[in-house]
Amino acid sequence: MSHVTEEEQAYVNAIIAKEMPEIERVSRKIARLLNTLSPQAAVYAHTLLSAELIASVMDDGDMAVGLSKHLQGEIAKALRANPKYTTQRRVN
Length: 92
Description:
Layout: H1 6-34, H2 39-57, H3 61-81, H4 83-86
Helix pairs in contact: 2-3
């Protein structure tokens, strides 16, 4: 992902913090909709939704791919921190 200054990151973090209640509300609604699908279809639909969202807000393809890779890392961190998985042993 392209370099972001500390000032830019602070600005983004402030927006996210301010909008977190709405982000969480919308995320729960989307999760409920996706959970009507099979687990495999729900995960695939999530991938398509993410790609559509990134493409709708970013004009730079390389930056969009970089953001996608960054988000994949954030998803992995969130899964590792999820209590559902913390008691399970990991291979890597």
